[in-house]
Design goal:
The structure is a single chain. A three-stranded mixed sheet has the order 2-1-3. The protein has one domain. By secondary structure, the protein is of the alpha+beta class. The chain starts with a helix and ends in an 11-residue tail after the last strand. It contains three helices and three strands.
Length: 89
């Protein structure tokens, strides 16, 4: 949560995605994510393998692994959109 707090101070988040448990439930950390994210950002919940597909996208440019020990404590932040010409829009 400390890393997320620092990131939110440094970048503007456009969208956020979190992973559901294998049985489709929200992990307990989701409420903490929602409390920290800006109020205008909805937290989109994805099933496990859909989340992995998003992370493996060529548009993923930075992965941060923390020491968080809770299961399903994965968060994907969209902080910018790049056009086909490579210019942020």
């Amino acid at each position: 949560m400390q890393v997320l707090t620092g990131l939110l101070d440094a970048v503007t988040v456009e969208q956020a995605y979190a992973m559901l448990t294998d049985d489709g439930q929200e992990p307990s950390i989701i409420s903490e994510f929602r409390a920290l994210l800006p109020k205008n950002i909805s937290l989109n919940l994805l099933e496990r393998y859909k989340f992995y597909e998003q992370v493996e996208s060529p548009q993923t440019i930075l992965v941060i692994a923390t020491g968080e020990q809770r299961l399903f404590a994965n968060l994907l932040l969209e902080i910018g959109v790049v056009s086909a010409e490579g210019v942020s829009v």
